């Protein structure tokens, strides 16, 4: 749907799934596997606005048609008083979760685009 519907759902204690872009032109620059990459701010902005945690999840293939869900720890808005810094902190923690899981199961991952290009 849209951003407004997501806010309404979260304020009503409902989950909201977001698939974030892997290269966000209007995102923030992060270190991902010790290289510069762009990351989307949308999910962290939403969580920060509503005051709810980000819940990082991913699927890992076990067999041809079997997968398991891996859940990371909830990432709560720091509420430091600096909204931009809080969003950046949440995005970095979110990506550290994915880095850790990719390092555990590197055979599960590939990118078909230039993941580490920085906004041009």
| Largest sheet: spatial strand order | 1-2
What global shape is seen? globular
Radius of gyration from CA coordinates: 15 Å
Distance between the termini: 29 Å
Query: What proportion strand?
Result: 15-25%
Low-pLDDT segments: none
**Sheet with the most strands, sense and barrel status:** 2 strands, antiparallel
Q: Mean pLDDT, nearest integer?
A: 87
- The number of helices is 3
Q: Provide the structure class.
A: alpha+beta
Please provide the count of β strands.
4
Structure explained in plain terms:
With 120 residues, the chain is of the alpha+beta class. The protein is 33% helix and 19% strand.
State the gist of this model.
This protein is α+β, with helices and mostly antiparallel strands and 120 residues long.
Could you give the topology of this structure?
Blueprint: H1 3-11, E1 28-32, E2 35-39, H2 42-50, E3 57-63, E4 66-71, H3 83-104
Antiparallel strand pairs: 1-2, 3-4
Structural descriptors:
120 residues; two-stranded antiparallel ribbon; 3 helices; 4 strands; globular
């Amino acid at each position: 749907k849209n951003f407004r519907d997501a806010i309404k759902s979260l304020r009503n204690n409902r989950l909201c799934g977001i698939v974030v872009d892997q290269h966000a032109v209007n995102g923030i620059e992060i270190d991902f596997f010790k290289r510069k990459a762009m990351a989307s701010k949308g999910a962290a902005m939403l969580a920060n606005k509503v005051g709810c945690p980000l819940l990082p999840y991913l699927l890992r293939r076990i067999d041809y048609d079997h997968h398991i869900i891996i859940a990371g720890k909830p990432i709560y808005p720091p509420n430091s008083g600096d909204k931009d810094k809080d969003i950046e902190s949440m995005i970095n923690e979110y990506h550290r979760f994915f880095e850790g899981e990719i390092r555990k199961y590197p055979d599960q991952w590939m990118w078909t685009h230039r993941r580490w290009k920085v906004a041009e």
